[in-house]
Amino acid sequence: MTVSPFYISRFAVTNEQFAEFARKSGYRTEAERFGWSFVFRNHLVEWGCAMRGQDAAEYAMPGTPWWVRVDGADWSHPEGPDTSIVSRPHHPVAHISWNDAQAHCAWAGYRLSTETEWEYAARGGLDQRIYPWGDELTPEGRHMCNIWQGVFPDTDLGEDGFTAAAPADSFPPNGFGLCNAVGNVWEWCADGFDPLWHVQATRVDPAGPPSGATRVMKGGSYLCHESYCWRYRNAARTGTAPDTSTCHIGFRVVRDT
Predict the structure, then answer these.
(1) Per-residue pLDDT for 185 more than 50?
(2) Would residue 211 count as lying in a domain?
(3) CA distance 96 to 246
(4) For position 47, what pLDDT does the model report?
(5) pLDDT value at position 199?
(6) To the nearest whole number, what is the mean pLDDT of the chain?
(7) Any idea what the CATH number is for the domain that residue 110 is in?
(8) How far apart are CA 98 and CA 156, in angstroms?
(9) Looking at the 3D structure of the chain, how many domains does it have?
(10) With left for phi above 0 and alpha for psi between -120 and 50, is residue 49 left, alpha or beta?
(11) d(CA 251, CA 31)
(12) Among the listed residues 9, 91, 1, 74, the one whose alpha carbon sits nearest the alpha carbon of residue 38
């Protein structure tokens, strides 16, 4: 496979960077316009506070009750209207839809990567390896990314140092200098999601469909665990509706050389 040269950001876009975009452009994210977003239930310290008196069970997602719709949750209020990013300027921005990421890129002069570009960069020059650093999840007992340890979804032991999103530079970079390519937050790609993409891909700058009901996300997040969501692998992928907003979805940017 041939991938043309491109530049990619070392880190996912941070709260500080997105705040500058929002302030200067006046842009309001889809979560802000909708008035709500999805928050992981364990991060709602007090249901009554975060839900403003609403019944949490009523707002939990059927089949995945660890996801709760929280009114007033958005990128600057990650766990609800009574929370803030003030103490988290260097954390990756979250509660960002694909459409929001596109708007930021258009304003800043960047673009989202194709899935191929993202995976090439995440591998860091290592061919046919499971993770950006190799095949062993914790080489010599060292945690290399921010994922779930324990029993999902009830107990995260935080053995990697975090039980929620970590600052964007928290773990060692890969061979290309990218930090947190897997784990921490999911990262949007430009492509539409096609489950047969790997079969249909061309050998030169392959890209998925330019449109579709869902868009590609790569890298997994701090909620991923092998027993439930082993998607913190270089090759793993999923598709999500472009207006989706949750506390574990962000993005990284690229530009052409």
Answers:
(1) yes
(2) yes
(3) 7
(4) 43
(5) 66
(6) 93
(7) 3.90.1580.10
(8) 28
(9) 1
(10) alpha
(11) 16
(12) 74
> Measured on CA atoms in the order 24, 210, 195, 131, is the torsion positive or negative?
negative
Q: What is the pLDDT of residues 136-149, one digit of tens each?
A: 999 999 999 999 99
Residue 117 lies in a domain: yes
Task: Provide the strand spans (E) within the chain.
Answer: 6-8, 36-40, 60-61, 64-71, 150-151, 155-156, 186-192, 215-218, 238-240, 249-250, 254-256
Alpha helices by DSSP H, the chain: 15-25, 30-34, 47-51, 56-59, 98-108, 115-123, 197-200
Q: Which domain holds residue 123?
A: 6-27+98-256
What is the pLDDT, as a whole number, of residue 48?
A: 45
Task: Indicate the SS3 state at residue 111.
Answer: strand
- For the chain, give the number of residues: 257
Question: Which tens digit of pLDDT belongs to each residue from 79-96?
Answer: 999 999 999 999 999 999
Both structure tokens of 6: 């491109």
**Can you give the pTM of this predicted structure?**
0.94
- Rounded distance, CA 218 to CA 232, Å? 8
Query: 41 lies in a domain?
Result: no
pLDDT band at 1 (very low <50, low <70, confident <90, very high): confident
Cis peptide before 153 (omega within 30 of 0): yes
For 7, phi then psi, to 5°, come to -100, 140
198 vs 205, higher pLDDT = 205
Is 93 a member of any domain? no
Residue 31's SS3 state is helix
